[in-house]
Write a structure and sequence with these properties.
Shape: elongated
Number of strands: 17
Largest sheet: 13 strands, mixed
Strand content: 25-35%
Helix content: 25-40%
Distance between the termini: 79 Å
Amino acid sequence: MNKSKRIIEILRGESGASLAFIAVILVALLAVSALAIDLGMLYIGQQRAQNVCDESALSAVVLLTGQPNCATQTGLPATTAQQVATTNNQLSPKWQVYVPGTSTPGVQVTFPTGTVTSNSGQAISVTSGQAITVKGFVNVTYGFAQIMGLQSRTVSASATAIVEPMNSLTSSLFVPLVVSNTTVFGGNGQPALQFGQEATLKTTAWQDNFLGPGNFGMIDLPGDGPGGSTLRSRLAGDLPAVTVSGVPSTTVSTEPGNKTGPVYQGLSDRLAKETNPLFTNDSTAWANWLAAYNSTTGTFPSTWRLALVPIVQDPSAPVNGRSTVTIIGYAGFFIESAPKNQPVVGRFIQGTYVGGNIRWIFPTGNNITSPIGIQTSALVS
């Protein structure tokens, strides 16, 4: 009996020790679980802030013109970034994003100059109007950590997006009419063109053209064959999209001869496709297009008058007949008029390539500073 009693007492003691040990383990597991939950809350808050910053920056960057006049707090890029942040805050008020250093919902928008650093560590040079940075934070309220006296913590995020030249572009908007880099960017005593300044393509006499004898300002686009039939179809917009590269440069053949008939017929066919009455009259189309700017979306309407014109390196010596020239870039061009036996008249414009389409923009009164008037956007950090 004494031995049995002793065994029972030992078992009771071990049972008490086990319960105490289990209690300690449970407390530890509870603490770890609490820590995991609160860390998860911090992660969600940080991702929430990052997503809003990314979306705001990407929505705003496509509205940058690359010119300083768009880099203001009242300009469309900044107001669009704030609008996107506000919309996201309404969709998820629990994870409110705030302007850094304030209690104001929204994001902080700045326009960096000099250099920005990408996630990969690359230093990218930018000027005013080429980059936008969006910052915000989320205030995360702790759950279990409040037991230890910790109430909340802020988690911050930042996103920087830039616009940069689009080195290669595939589009059906390309026309086989070219302009020289000297005409566009200045040189030999003549100033650079401004966006919206009237310019001419396709001269009526080869002596007035920059290429040389027998050439009137036309080329065969990559993949297009020579001849008036192809020229007419390309000008009319009846051929498939073509890829043109400015960097690296593209070497193409000139299309010699006046080709008055094919040029006039092709451009007449192109403009005849226009159904918007605002753009059917040569004398009023440009003014109407400018007036049709949508200040809410920052876009201009589409029209058959819009084209992409290759910019060709001005040859160091005149080229004779069918010869090769080098495309170094391209820009948007609004065709105002194309009368028979007369130069094609229009104005250079700018655009940003977004989601397979070109969003046309018009930085009034600024010189053309890049051989590639079509830009693209990228989130760099």
